[in-house]
Every structure is written in C-alpha cells, then in structure tokens.
Please model this.
Amino acid sequence: MSKSPFQGRNNSDSDRRKRYEALVDELYQDVFRYAYWLTRNKGIAEDLVQETFLRAWRSFDSLQNEKAAKAWLFTILRRENARQYERYRPELVDINDVAVAEEGSAEPDHKQKQVELHQAIMRLDKDYRDPLLLQVIGGFSGKEIADILDLNNNTVMTRLFRARSKLKAILVPDAVSDEAGEDLTDKITD
Amino acid sequence: MDDLEFRTRAFSNPSDQQEDFRAAADASPERRQLLDELLELERDLQRALIVEVPAGLKRKLHQQARPASPLRSRSLMALAASLVIATGLALNLFMQPGLSAQDLALHDEVVEHLHQEAPDYQTRYDNGNDISWAQVEAILRASGTSLKSVDELASMHMIFARLCGLAGTRSAHLVTRGEHGPVSIIFIRTTPVTRGVELRDERFQGRIIPVDEGNMAVIGEKNEALGHYEQILRDNVEWSI
Model:
C-alpha cells in the first residue's frame, strides 16, 4: 500500500505547505461549488471557502487520513456557514440570479431546463436538499453524509429517496408517488 | 430484491454499483427504465450544479499558507496586545477626563477586540482578498444596522466582515483597505458614549463616536487618514429596531 501524503510526515514548514497546496488543488472547486449552493451567493461562498481553508491550514496537523480530507473540509465549511451567516440570513428562494457556468452559452431549451432544475432544487426542504447536495457535489457515501450531518445512515438514505422523489414530482408532475422509502430504510445498504 | 426495495435504493442512490442492485436493475424492463430515468436526472443534476469558480481563488488559498512577516506572527501579536491593553487603560484614565466608566470599558473592549481580530484581517489585507458588499450587508443586517447609500461607499474595498460580541451586543466589524493598512469600522448598538473617545494604543489610532442611538468606531494604523471614512459612514448609517 502506498503511503498517504498525510501520514508519517515530517514536520517541516515547506512540506506541510506542499501538502496543504495539494489539498487545495484537489478539492477547492468542489468545496466552492458546495459553498455556493449552500449560500447562493458567490461572494459569501468565496469568503466561506477562504475561511474554511484558513481554518484547515491552522489545524492541518490534526488531519490524519487523506481520505477524510474532503469530509473534513465540508464539515468545517458547514460549521463556518452556520456560525457566520446561516442563522443571521433569511433563506433565499429566488434563484433567478444564479450564475452557473453553462448559462451564458447554453441553448435556450437547455437553459430553461437548468432554470427549472435550479428552482426545483431550491423548492426542496433543507432537510432533503442538504444530503442531496452532499451526494451529488461531494460524491459522499450515505455513511459519510450521515457523519457530516450528524444523522444516522437510514435517515440519510430516506431523505435522499424523498429528495429525488420530490424533484421528479416537481419536474414531471404525476410521474412519481412517494409510497416507498418509509419502511424500507433498513433494507438500504450503502 | 423486491420492487419496493429496488425502487427505494434506486431513488436513494441511482449510481449504486453494488452487485445485487445492478442485477436487480436488469431483472425487468420496468426497473431498467426507472433506473435509466433516474440516471438521466442525475446527469442533469450534475450539470445544473456546475458553478464557475472565481478566477484567482486557488492562488488566494495557496497564499493563506504563506508565512506572514515575523512582526505579524501570532505570538508577538498576543504579547503586543496585552501590553497595549494595559497601556491603553492607563492612558485613558489620565488623559481623557470627562469619560464615564462605561466609555472607558468600551474603549478597552474595542482595543482588545482589534488586537484579537487583527491577524485574520491583516492576512486578508496582505493577500489582496476582497469580499463583496453582499457579505457586508448580510453582516450589517444581522447586527441591526444598515448603510443608506451604498453608491457613496462603493469605492471602499472591503476585506472583512464579521459579527462580534462587543458591549454585550451583536456588533458589525467591517474592515476596508486603507492607504497604509486595514481600516476597521465597527458599529456597536449600545448606549452612545458621552463624547468621542480617542483610541490610546501603540499600533492603532481612531475614535469611537456616538451616532444616533449607537456607537461607531473607525480605526486604522497610525498614519492613516480616517476623517473621510468617519464622515461618509456617519452620514449613512441607520440603526434598525
């Protein structure tokens, strides 16, 4: 097994900085993307990402496992958002000002579809939207999402089920019913 | 695996690669169709959530790990802070007669707070990291203040905005980019000071002034001209209930 760059390290400042920069290179885009959809504000998202990586840098030595780095950063970001912005800021539901990368060049039909999907995502209750964003943007497993959100795995899987059910119901009315997902969470494996 | 379990797993994680789930998907055309629809939704979601990452963000994040100048190291700052607080208190007592004990206490709390926050906003100043006015407005709202004419203030490059506990209230601490260093602007919604309180500190200069039903502090490095900041902000601040 190859040795993780985050383990068995020497403590020189330059080595520590190189490992930090490698972490930034690998993860900053996903972290920004998540910050953006958490706040729906590019400026606040950028500030949150900077604060997140600043805190990560300050406690970088506490990171013992490379595989845990992404979940660690997302957790710092969520905590920082809650501390600085979330409780003082009304929930924004108007997504018309969303500046996604593709919008400028997208075909009208495609653009319309994107807007509808944005609106559908923002219409989801936060309890359903949170795990969905972590799964789609972060690529986290149910267990990792459960750890980040401090929930149990079955609850996360149920919320993911409902999030997609509701999305389909919003996008294609009458196409989906919410009959499953209530009692079968014990059958869901991760 | 029965249909209900398949459906539940498909909606929870359509990209599930486990053997039993994949085999179950191929067991009937209806299941295959449902999974294909969900995978298409997944691709749409992936595309819809793409956001353009700000240019220069990676560079800024790298810079956060660059060492600051030795004079700005945290330990020296902490030592300087304790010396400064003691000096400030002594000078206040002797050189600013007519101020109440509450005025002096607010002065000392502000000075201590500035020295605590300085490493953070100094890093942002050194790295050239600006924040948006939307962030500033969010913090102002949360502190019960607002600024009337953002147009007049638009030329100010804001680098820091945070809610801080000062005088037992939620106060807005903003920092803008000054000529000679960061300039702190703090709105404290508490009983107005008796009169303007000049800051006594080895590093910072500025003052706390009463503005309507609250206080505003504009504080910068020793050689920073602060008058115009004070003027613009005093004319524009509004306190909400």
Summary: The first helix of chain B runs from residue 3 to 12. Chain B has two domains: 3-48, 70-239. The CA atoms of residues 102 and 194 of chain B lie 9 Å apart. Chain B is about 50% helix and 20% strand.
